[in-house]
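Model: You mentioned two targets. I'll fold them one after the other.
Researcher: Yes, keep them separate.
Model: Target one:
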Amino acid sequence: MSLDTSRKSAPAGHVERKGEDTKSDKVVAGVSHVMLSLWALMVLIPLAWTLLSSFKTTKEILISPFSLPADWKFDNYVSAWNTAGIGLYFFNTVIVVGFALVIVMVLGAMCAYVLARYVFPGSRAIYYLMLAGLTFPIFLAIVPLFFILKNIGLLNTLPGLIIVYVSFALPFTVFFLFSFFKALPKEIAEAAQIDGAGEWRTFFQVMLPMAKPGMASVAIFNFLGLWNQYLIPVAINTNPENYVLSQGIAAFAGQQGYAVDFGSLFAAAIIVVVPVLIMYILFQRQLQGSVSAGTMK
């Protein structure tokens, strides 16, 4: 009798798991840990070496590149920020990437929501055109972009660079968020409309917060792509006063010829990397949540 009761108390569809992992599971887990450890070392060792080199003189870097600095030179960061103009380039990059990221996230979320939740003539065509934008090489658009921005008076300006960044990041944003909005239950939106919420309020106060993991993930990917962008600024932003960080570091390394101040150059590289690390640390929980949510669908 007790045996039958215990069986009945088990939830329907319950599958008993094995108490111990099989040998193949242990092998797969071991290989995965080894590969991940090697990947972590490949990332962390160059980063740590760059960080240490940013506190050295050029002579120390050339003579003993893997030793600790004899005298920690924080002046390298001051020199990179002021003398090399990294401060100005950093400010320009924050403006361009910040405005472009906000605009592309708002427009991309709205576009993805409409394409995912509503059916209207041409909706599929618009979606496929967005997908086609992902396959369009950037270098093929450089010449047309140059003349378009020149004709509208936005060539070599930060607003022109922002518009181009938004246009190239928009297809990926729509493609990424489309599946998130498609998977959200329609009943929630219908309930909000029954309670008197309009389309705008339903989107911004109900549906958009539910897609927060996807928004965080695509924001990180867009931030990385826009922050490290080099080809587009080089082609349409040739005014030194409007340089972004990727252009500034390239110019800083090239203008010194054979007398490169490697300490300041490594300090400038660290300045470029730090915002990316901060961005990931702030949004890593949402990024992990989006990955786990995607595996549950």
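Model: Target two:
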Amino acid sequence: MKKKQSKKKTQFKKKKNYSEKTAFSNLEKASSTETTPKRSSTGIPKYVADRMARRIFFTAGIPTILGMSVFVVSYIIVTRNIAEIPPSSTIAISALFFLLGLAGLSFGILSASWDKEPGSFFGIENIPMNIQRAKAAFKPATQNFEDKN
């Protein structure tokens, strides 16, 4: 156990008083040091990410919005006595739209072209190449895992 310091010793310590000039000059010296430039990352380029976001909005966003609107439309139809809709069919149709949105999410990511100029409208020709890129991105991690075992 450490012994507690007596208050007498701490009372007589002199506090350093800096003038404004010396305090800020030290700050300026510290800020003038050279900073190393950030390395460019090997991630997804911005134009490809924007292209993916647009595709995801249409292929996943619209079905997801439709999946949520099924509940609203079903509620309106049932409360106004237009038709009798069983709750199971409402859930099934909504689940179908949500699954379509999930498939659209994968399609939107995998169908985006990595070239500077945009590819075709649907981008189906880019899917096999992008699957290979995804496999290659995870390959070093699995090799390291296998080496340790």
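Researcher: Noted. Anything on target two?
Model: The chain has five helices and no strands.
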